[in-house]
């Protein structure tokens, strides 16, 4: 017992240390888990033989992940993906397998081994790709959706690949007799353990009926029985029981799929799709998500811990060469297919680099290939290292894509497109029409104020034109463009650029050449606000301040505060902020060269919080405003006074009428 606890402690501590560090340096959580595995495995030897066993358990995280993915997809959405699912996915698997197999044949590898290697390396890592895309926000891009289509097809393709591999086995008396049945039995694994009690050895007709029956059970349970079950469990009011029910559903479907020789991952994916419209969908996601993250993290750690430095050092040249060749071959196929299927721009590179690695199913296929005598033990050991190394390099490819390729492509796209000719000049010039600038522009247009909208992102300008918002492509930080846009006659310049440095530079230049022009600027936070004011902006608005203040007022109302009181408290809060703003800004500007926040600024901020507390305690009930826009609440008995005045007025009119 102590040994198991010690090992669990080692894995958890490694993850707790390495993953936050990796995220902090922009490397992603996957690379953090892989490095953690390397540290506790080959580097320090803190973990050993149990790694392979843990890896089999952790692979269940892929099953849970596909269940959660299924919950996000409705059947009609899946139908809309059919062209890329079958076309792009099928051509990727076939093209990658052919290219890798052909390359292996050039190096005098037996054709049966070459075909097996091609099929194994044609698959990619579902775990790494979906996890990384989710973290980086690429899941809903065209490249992310295309990658998911290919991954889903690959998961389906695992079943026929496992069934086909026995036909590539080296002819031995003890092996030939069980070729077909061995493949069918292992086809149920699809990245998990193959089922010892599989029904795949039944007569073909009965086995086919069993498969249809299992799929039907999944659909019936998901469509008709799950909702009453979850309602019954929800009435208990015990969250842990609901979690246990959700896990029982996933585990039960996995067991059923394994029993009939199908992929547990695909079975749970189907169940997720069926439950996509369920009223309990979000509850299922929130309950199962932690298990997915934990198991996937454990899986990545075991991959890193499974790297053998001895094998790596002894065969360094061969392993690096094969790993690079596999990544290059798959990337080439994916890039060509992205052209065929019209995946453009950065989405093309997201698709190409995301799926260039070998996948976790490769470990299962390699083990099976060794078992049925397709590959030798020495070859399996080396190829498993190639799979691990390619997975290890994938986060680095993502970094290359995110930090180097995508910014260059965006810059090149903008540079290739010539700046628009500005044929209309507005009363207000708006620099930047992202989520902030668009609202400002719409409000002004709705009130008949003419605007000239500038943005340096061509795609954003095109999108605005599609919804009939006239805008111009160009770099608003260039004074020549601002002159063409009519800044000499404009009344206002609104700076809503997303880039802080460019926004500050723009304010400085405009105020230097047009000191009388009123400049309004959007700030991200206090520091940015102070810098923009120091640069010369006349009015600066923090992008989240007023929305947060509004929500704070709504929170007070929800807690039972009278709307008048809540509005007064908001106004008092805002007034205290305004009163203390000059002092805070002056201190920040004078000490901005220091790292972090200065001691004097901290003291002023603490003073500000104290002033806020005191302002909230003041009684303003005696300062009722009779103005139309006044928000100070009326004094006690004000309603009775109004009613009495109204009654007197009515009586007076009646008497005068008599």
TrEMBL record:
Ranges annotated as biased composition (Basic and acidic residues): 617-630, 646-658
All copies of domain RCK N-terminal, residue ranges: 425-541
Region (Disordered): 617-658
Principal location: membrane
Keyword Disulfide bond found: no
Source organism, top-level taxon: Bacteria
Membrane topology label: Multi-pass membrane protein
Location in or out of the cell: Membrane
Transmembrane domains' residue ranges: 6-23, 30-48, 54-73, 85-107, 113-130, 150-169, 205-225, 262-280, 292-312, 318-337, 349-370, 382-401
Keywords annotated in UniProt: Antiport, Ion transport, Membrane, Potassium, Potassium transport, Transmembrane, Transmembrane helix, Transport
Entries under Pfam families matching the protein: Na_H_Exchanger, TrkA_N
SUPFAM superfamilies, sorted: NAD(P)-binding Rossmann-fold domains
InterPro entries according to UniProt: Cation/H_exchanger_TM, Na+/solute_symporter_sf, NAD(P)-bd_dom_sf, RCK_N
Database matches in PANTHER family: K(+) EFFLUX ANTIPORTER 3, CHLOROPLASTIC
Annotated protein name in UniProt: Potassium transporter
